[in-house]
Amino acid sequence: MDCFPVPVNNNSARKRQRNPETWKRNIAKVQRYSPKTLPKRPLCKHRKKFECLSISMRDIKEFHDGFYKFQDKSKQDAFILKHCSIKQTRRHRPTTGSHKPKCSQISYFMFSPTLKKRLKVCQNFFF
Protein backbone atom coordinates (compact mmCIF):
# COMPACT_ATOMS: atom_id res chain seq x y z
CA MET A 1 0.00 0.00 0.00
CA ASP A 2 1.72 3.09 -1.23
CA CYS A 3 0.61 6.42 0.22
CA PHE A 4 2.04 9.54 -1.30
CA PRO A 5 1.61 13.05 0.11
CA VAL A 6 -0.82 15.19 -1.81
CA PRO A 7 -0.44 18.98 -2.04
CA VAL A 8 -3.06 20.74 0.07
CA ASN A 9 -4.84 24.00 -0.70
CA ASN A 10 -3.47 26.82 1.51
CA ASN A 11 -6.92 28.10 2.49
CA SER A 12 -7.90 24.86 4.22
CA ALA A 13 -4.48 24.03 5.70
CA ARG A 14 -3.79 27.17 7.71
CA LYS A 15 -4.49 27.66 11.38
CA ARG A 16 -7.73 29.15 12.58
CA GLN A 17 -7.50 32.94 12.66
CA ARG A 18 -7.99 34.48 16.07
CA ASN A 19 -10.85 36.93 16.55
CA PRO A 20 -10.28 38.94 19.77
CA GLU A 21 -13.58 40.86 19.43
CA THR A 22 -15.54 37.72 20.27
CA TRP A 23 -13.54 36.75 23.38
CA LYS A 24 -15.49 36.96 26.67
CA ARG A 25 -12.78 38.99 28.34
CA ASN A 26 -12.74 41.63 25.59
CA ILE A 27 -16.55 41.77 25.39
CA ALA A 28 -16.65 42.42 29.16
CA LYS A 29 -14.05 45.20 28.72
CA VAL A 30 -16.12 46.92 26.05
CA GLN A 31 -19.27 46.69 28.17
CA ARG A 32 -17.42 47.99 31.24
CA TYR A 33 -16.33 51.17 29.45
CA SER A 34 -19.56 51.85 27.57
CA PRO A 35 -22.40 54.04 28.94
CA LYS A 36 -25.04 52.37 31.10
CA THR A 37 -27.62 55.18 31.08
CA LEU A 38 -28.10 58.67 29.72
CA PRO A 39 -26.41 61.44 31.73
CA LYS A 40 -28.35 63.16 34.52
CA ARG A 41 -27.97 66.77 35.58
CA PRO A 42 -26.04 66.95 38.88
CA LEU A 43 -27.68 68.71 41.80
CA CYS A 44 -25.21 71.52 42.43
CA LYS A 45 -26.18 75.20 42.52
CA HIS A 46 -22.85 76.91 41.85
CA ARG A 47 -23.05 80.25 40.06
CA LYS A 48 -19.93 82.27 40.83
CA LYS A 49 -16.70 80.33 41.27
CA PHE A 50 -17.98 77.34 39.29
CA GLU A 51 -20.33 77.78 36.36
CA CYS A 52 -22.33 74.58 36.79
CA LEU A 53 -25.74 76.18 36.26
CA SER A 54 -24.77 77.89 33.00
CA ILE A 55 -24.12 74.56 31.24
CA SER A 56 -27.16 73.22 29.41
CA MET A 57 -28.31 69.62 29.32
CA ARG A 58 -27.36 69.48 25.64
CA ASP A 59 -23.76 70.37 26.54
CA ILE A 60 -23.72 67.66 29.21
CA LYS A 61 -25.00 65.13 26.68
CA GLU A 62 -22.30 66.10 24.15
CA PHE A 63 -19.59 65.82 26.82
CA HIS A 64 -20.96 62.42 27.84
CA ASP A 65 -21.02 61.24 24.21
CA GLY A 66 -17.49 62.53 23.65
CA PHE A 67 -16.25 60.55 26.66
CA TYR A 68 -18.00 57.30 25.76
CA LYS A 69 -17.07 57.60 22.09
CA PHE A 70 -13.89 55.79 23.09
CA GLN A 71 -14.30 52.14 24.09
CA ASP A 72 -10.76 51.99 25.48
CA LYS A 73 -9.95 52.89 29.11
CA SER A 74 -6.68 54.63 28.29
CA LYS A 75 -8.38 56.90 25.72
CA GLN A 76 -11.13 57.73 28.22
CA ASP A 77 -8.47 58.63 30.79
CA ALA A 78 -6.76 60.87 28.24
CA PHE A 79 -10.13 62.58 27.59
CA ILE A 80 -10.50 63.29 31.32
CA LEU A 81 -6.95 64.63 31.59
CA LYS A 82 -7.61 66.91 28.62
CA HIS A 83 -10.46 68.53 30.57
CA CYS A 84 -8.54 68.89 33.86
CA SER A 85 -5.73 71.15 34.92
CA ILE A 86 -3.37 70.38 37.79
CA LYS A 87 -1.62 73.21 39.62
CA GLN A 88 0.83 73.18 42.49
CA THR A 89 -0.48 74.76 45.68
CA ARG A 90 0.90 78.25 46.15
CA ARG A 91 0.98 78.33 49.92
CA HIS A 92 1.36 75.61 52.54
CA ARG A 93 -0.17 76.65 55.87
CA PRO A 94 1.17 74.80 58.91
CA THR A 95 -1.30 72.50 60.64
CA THR A 96 -1.13 70.36 63.74
CA GLY A 97 -3.09 67.47 62.20
CA SER A 98 -1.70 64.08 61.36
CA HIS A 99 -2.53 64.22 57.65
CA LYS A 100 -0.18 65.55 54.99
CA PRO A 101 -1.01 68.86 53.30
CA LYS A 102 -2.15 68.86 49.70
CA CYS A 103 0.59 69.44 47.18
CA SER A 104 -1.59 69.95 44.09
CA GLN A 105 -4.97 71.34 43.10
CA ILE A 106 -7.14 69.89 40.33
CA SER A 107 -9.56 72.09 38.37
CA TYR A 108 -12.25 70.54 36.17
CA PHE A 109 -13.51 72.12 32.96
CA MET A 110 -16.26 71.37 30.44
CA PHE A 111 -16.44 72.86 26.98
CA SER A 112 -19.82 74.36 26.16
CA PRO A 113 -20.52 74.39 22.40
CA THR A 114 -23.57 76.63 22.90
CA LEU A 115 -21.55 79.28 24.77
CA LYS A 116 -18.38 78.47 22.79
CA LYS A 117 -16.10 78.57 25.81
CA ARG A 118 -14.51 76.38 28.45
CA LEU A 119 -16.29 76.59 31.81
CA LYS A 120 -14.93 75.64 35.22
CA VAL A 121 -17.17 73.16 37.05
CA CYS A 122 -17.10 71.41 40.41
CA GLN A 123 -15.87 67.84 40.86
CA ASN A 124 -19.38 66.55 41.56
CA PHE A 125 -20.65 68.03 38.30
CA PHE A 126 -17.68 66.70 36.31
CA PHE A 127 -18.04 63.09 37.44
Low-confidence spans: none
Q: Hey, roughly how much beta strand do the residues contain?
A: 5-15%
Structural class by helix and strand composition: alpha+beta
- SSE pattern, N- to C-terminal: HHHHEEEH
Report the principal-axis shape: elongated
| Largest pleated sheet | 3 strands, antiparallel
Mean pLDDT: 87
Number of helices: 5
> What is the number of strand segments?
3
Widest sheet, order of strands: 1-2-3
Range of helix content: 25-40%
- Rg, alpha carbons: 26 Å
Distance between the termini: 76 Å
Region (Disordered): 1-23
Characterise this structure.
- This protein is an alpha+beta fold and 127 residues long.
- It has helices spanning 10-13, 24-32, 57-68, 73-82, 123-126; strands at residues 84-88, 104-112, 117-121.
- Strands 1-2-3 form a three-stranded antiparallel sheet.
- Helix content is 31%, strand content 15%.
- The chain has a domain at 50-88 and 105-127.
- It is elongated, with a radius of gyration of 26 Å.
- The longest helix has 12 residues, at 57-68.
- It starts with 9 loop residues before the first helix and ends with a helix.
- Residues 1-23 are annotated as: Disordered.
